[in-house]
C-alpha cells in the first residue's frame, strides 16, 4: 500500500523523504487527506496538531473519522487511522491549539516542512509568523467549495500569508443579532438561527432570544417591563424556543406574538439600549401593517416583490405549518437542515427576517435578495479537499528535492478554464511585499488614533485585534521605556491612562514585539483628533507595480478588483480567492468575545 517502493520515486526523493520531519496543522477536511497522503508516500516522521474533537458533520468528508469517533480528538483519531495504512510511520498527535505556548519557534525549527490545513485567519497568521521566524517552508492550503489553492510561503523568497491586505470578514456581534439589529443581514442571520432553534439542529450559540448579558444594556436588563402575562407565554430565558414552540403545536399566531411581540417588549425593557437608538415596535398579530392593502403593482419576477408585513405573517404561518409537518414526519430526534432551495425554509427566513426588519425600522427585502444573502454558503467539498491535499504533498516533495523555486502557487479551478485547465499553476513564485508589516525586514505600521483619548488598554486591544498579536509588549523606540507589558501586573496600573498621559506623542515610534510569535513591528503613533477609536495604516494598500498578468484579480465572488500588490493569481478569466469561513479559534489567552460561525457569516458573541 505504501508508495515508498523502489522505482516509484527517484533515489534523491526517497532519501529526502526518509530523512524528513513534517508538521501538519489541522486535522479537518484537508488535514486528514494530507496525513493519509504523507503516510502512504512513506513520510516517516509526522506531527499533527488539532484543537478540536470530531463532530458528526465532519464524517461526510473527513474519511479518517467514523461514527464511533464522534467526540474524540481529531489529531489522535487521525493518527490512529493513518497508522492503520502504514504502521511504520512515527506520528505524534497533539490535541491542542497551534497558538499555544508549547509550540514556539524552536518547536517549528524541528521540521523540514510545515503544512497548514486550517480554517481561520488567526491560526494561519500565527503559523505564518512562526514559520517566518523559524525559517521553515510553509505549504499553505485552502478550499472554498470546488475551488482551492496551494501556496508556498518561504521567508525572503515568497509572499507571506499576510503580505496582502485581506478583505474584512463578515462578523456581527451576537448582541447585535439578538438585541439591536440595524441592517437587513442582521435580521437574516437571526431568522436562520430561528429556523434552527425551531426546526433544525439546536445550537446554544444561535440563541434568538433577547440577550440579557449585552454589556450595553448593563444594569437594567429585563428589569421591570415583563409582566405575569408574558411569563405565561414563555419567558425568554426559562424555556428553549424549541420546547415552547412544540408545546404550542407550532401555533403560528402564538409563535409570532412571542417572537415579534413579547420578545420585543422585553427588549424595550432594556432601556439603556434605546437611549441613543430608535426603539423597536412590537407587533400585534391582529393588527399588522399592510393588512388591508391590495398588493402593490410589481413588474418584475414574483420573488423580486417585497412582501408587506401582513403578507410576511401569512407566509410565516404557512411555512411554519409546512416545516412542522416535515419535522414530524421524521424519526424522533431528527431535524431539518436549512436549505435556500427548499421553499418553506426560504419562505420562513424571508418572512421572519422582514418582520424583524420592520420592527427595527430596517428596509425590507425581496425573497430574491434575501435568498442571495442567506444562501451564501460555501460548502466543503471532499474532492476539492483531496485534490488540494494531493497538490500540497507534491509541493512538499519538490521542496524536499531542493526544487523550491518550482513550488509556485497552484489553483484548483471550480471548472476548466478557457485553456482547458482545472489546475492552474502560477508561472513564478510571488515575491514578498516589501511593505508587508509582517515579513518586511523593517516592518512598520502607523496607528491613527487620538492620543488624548486612546488608553493603554485600547492600545493593547488594537495590537491584538489589528495586528493579530497574542501577547504584545511595547517599548518607546530609542528610549527602551516599556509602556506595555504582557507580564500580568507590570503595566496594568496604567491601563486606564491615555497614551498622552503616559508620555506618548504624535509621531512617537513604539517597538512592539510578541514573544509568542517571535514577531516585532514598529508602530508609529499618528495623532488624529477625529478618530474615535483606532485605525491601522499600512503602505500595503498602495498598489505595487503592475503584476505580470495583464488582468486585475477580482476578489472572491466577483467583487471589485482588490487594491494591493500582486496577489498570487492564475491566468484564467474567472478569478478566485480562498475565503476563510471561520475565526473560531482557541488561543492560549482566550479572547473576551467568542466568535461563532454561522455558515459563512461569523457571529461574535458578547
Ligand atoms: N488554532 C488551531 N490549532 C489547531 N487546529 C486548529 C486551529 N484552528 C483550527 N484548527 C483546526 O483546523 C481544522 C480545519 O479543518 P476544516 O476546515 O475541515 O474544518 P472542520 O471544523 O473540520 O469542518 P467544518 O468547519 O466545515 O465543520 C479543524 O479541524 C480545526 O479544528
Ligand atoms: Zn509578508
Automatic annotation (TrEMBL):
On whether Nucleotide-binding is a keyword of this UniProt record, the answer is: yes
Entry keywords, A to Z: ATP-binding, Metal-binding, Nucleotide-binding, Nucleus, Transferase, Ubl conjugation pathway, Zinc
* Annotated compartments: Nucleus
Identify the residues that bind ATP. 26-31, 50, 58-61, 74, 119-124
Residue ranges occupied by any THIF-type NAD/FAD binding fold domain in the UniProt entry: 8-414
GO MF term (any one): SUMO activating enzyme activity
What are the BP-aspect GO terms?
protein sumoylation
- Asked if Amino-acid biosynthesis is a keyword of the record, the answer is no
Q: Where is the active site?
A: 175
Q: Where is this region: Disordered?
A: 201-237, 534-593
- What residue ranges carry the coiled-coil annotation? none
**Domain named Ubiquitin-activating enzyme SCCH: which ranges?**
336-371
Instruction: State which pathway it belongs to.
Output: Protein modification; protein sumoylation
Q: Which residues form the Ubiquitin/SUMO-activating enzyme ubiquitin-like domain?
A: 447-531
Per the similarity annotation, which family is this?
Belongs to the ubiquitin-activating E1 family.
Q: How does it assemble?
A: Heterodimer.
Protein name, please?
A: SUMO-activating enzyme subunit
| The organism of origin for this protein | Pieris brassicae
